[in-house]
# Entry
Amino acid sequence: MRNRRLFNLVAGQTRFGPVAATDTTPDVLYLYDEISAYWGVTAADFVGELMGFGGRDFELHVNSPGGDVFEGLAMLNSLRAYPGKVTAVVDGIAASAASFLLMGANEVVMSKNSELMIHDAWGLCIGDATDMAAMSTRLDQVSANIASVYAERGDDAETWRARMRAETWYGADEAVAAGLADRVGGQVPVAASFDLSRFQGKTSTPVVDPIPARSPDPIPAPVEPVPQAAVPEPVSVLALLEKAFENGAQR
# Structure
């Protein structure tokens, strides 16, 4: 694989390491990028992933702004030809080429708050008036072809073409009402399991050791006052001089 935005979960394995899987875990393919022959997800990448499923039923989760028309048509036809059941789930946005490749799935599910957008084909042209006119004709042909894909789910191609010219955006419920999706799903369930047997007790229930009640601190005994040394009475300097004079006189 040249990119990391087209990846799968097959038998509990991904291109980024193992995941917890059970017998009920479906095979899943995520298309989370632009559709292009030069960058993003290519039709060759996409078909290679489909072959890896070996005809088993799988879910195709889409979050893509679309891209190259003919790469998208190749993906559409690879889904139509796939022998197993394909359930397409729009996780975020399925716009432009990403919207019509969904029509190749057996069931289209819009996740809550997801959106789908259809519009007329567009392209770049450099040249004179004849080249521009030819480009206009070619874009009309391509857009009519895409409208016929949507028409397989109801309404005629011209009705879809008018919606494409207006660049129409559909919320989850609106896509179902328009016939572009079959139902609105809830959150994508993600299951995880962990082997906790290596831990003591082999239980997933947390065990908390009870904290013993703390006994009240004992009341400290009263502290006996520390006796202080006697402080002599203050003696004035004059009294000392008089006493010294008397002693000197007696000698």
Observations:
- Residues 122-163 form one domain.
